[in-house]
TrEMBL record:
It comes from Sinorhizobium sojae CCBAU 05684. It holds the Pfam family FAD_binding_5. The keyword DNA-binding does not apply. The keyword Lipid biosynthesis does not apply. Residues 1-219 form the FAD-binding PCMH-type domain. This is Periplasmic aromatic aldehyde oxidoreductase, FAD binding subunit YagS. Keywords: FAD, Flavoprotein, Plasmid. One of its GO terms (molecular function) is FAD binding.
């Protein structure tokens, strides 16, 4: 391990000032510390923000408001989250092992590096790790990689499960930085790789996520998260789908859909949603809508199966959501 400075702060203002001058935030550290051990990332100064008062989970009207430092395990186990936003709880449980959920913060999960195995291989070209060096995955082993939102510079999938649920549910986030506070949809946090894949999010220098707000809706409780992976224990998704439905008088009135494991960021499926509104919640309608999901896909040599697996996963997730009482 290389030398670095670790400072603890209990003031949001002090933390922001330190980060604005080049320090890195660290909370659970479940990704950052791992990458530091391998010397993939080598920050020289870390600001421990665990003492900041940003771990509360509260209900405001129909909204669930989650502090950025709330641990994934605490959010998943929270009775109000389970009651009002079961999709969030399920995606968190599917997203990591119990040990990681106990440590990882909600804000940190959203900001974890978008990475593939080549990112960790210091002897392999990777535009995320070394901009301009090339992308080893495009002509290498790429079964787990993205088919949507890719570029000639990067094909890594976004790893977060709960981010898929948050994007599906139109969640917003509040951040604070040197220029003050602002709020925006969680979906707008994530950049497409383009020709700058090392730039993964839209936060400004020094900005700190303070809370995540998940709006309540009549579709929220009829919701499920389905994750397809290589093994039943902790693993990134090959394909995942978050589905939420409002069914009235035997007809779909509202629907929210997003996919993971297939995009370079959590992938909202608005064309599929529009196709389902006004239809009966039947397999044929689900299949016709899900067939739109791979539009614009750019499969690689080893991940063409995702073009077929994505619609099938969406259909099953919709069926599961429709079965919720």
């Amino acid at each position: 391990m290389f030398p670095f400075v670790l400072e603890k702060t209990r003031s949001i203002e002090d933390a922001i000032a330190a980060a604005a001058s080049g320090a890195r935030y660290i909370a659970g550290g479940t990704t950052l510390v791992d990458l530091m051990r391998e010397e993939v990332e080598m920050p020289d100064r870390l600001i421990d923000i665990n003492g900041l008062p940003l771990d509360a989970i509260r209900i405001e009207g129909d909204d669930v408001v989650i502090g950025a430092l709330a641990r994934m395990a605490d959010v998943a186990a929270n009775p109000d989250v389970q009651r009002l936003q079961p999709l969030i709880a399920e995606s968190l449980i599917e997203g990591a092992s119990p040990q990681l959920r106990n440590m990882a913060s909600m804000g940190g999960n959203l900001l974890q590096r978008v990475r593939c195995p080549y990112f960790r291989m210091l002897d392999a070209p990777c535009n995320k790790r070394s901009p301009g060096s090339g992308c080893s995955a495009i002509d290498g082993l790429n079964a787990a990689h993205a088919i949507l939102g890719t570029s000639d510079h990067c094909v890594a999938t976004h790893p977060s499960d709960v981010a898929v649920a948050l994007v599906a549910l139109d969640a917003t986030m509040r951040v604070r930085g040197p220029e003050g506070e602002r709020s925006f949809p969680v979906e707008e946090l994530f950049r497409l790789p383009g020709d700058t894949p090392h730039l993964e999010h839209t936060l400004l220098p020094g900005e700190l996520i303070t809370e995540i707000r998940v709006p309540g809706g009549p579709y929220s409780r009829r919701a499920r998260y389905l994750k397809v992976r290589d093994r039943a224990s902790y693993e990134f998704a090959l394909v995942s789908a978050a589905a939420a439905l409002l069914i009235e008088d035997g007809v779909i009135r509202e629907v929210r859909l997003a996919a993971g494991g297939v995009g370079t960021r959590p992938w909202r499926l608005r064309d599929c949603e529009a196709q389902l509104v006004g239809k009966r919640p039947e397999r044929q309608a689900f299949a016709e809508a899900a067939a739109l999901a791979p539009q614009g896909a750019r499969p690689l040599h080893h991940n063409r199966f995702k073009v077929v697996l994505l619609p099938r996963t969406i259909v099953r997730a919709l069926e599961m959501a429709g079965e919720v009482a």
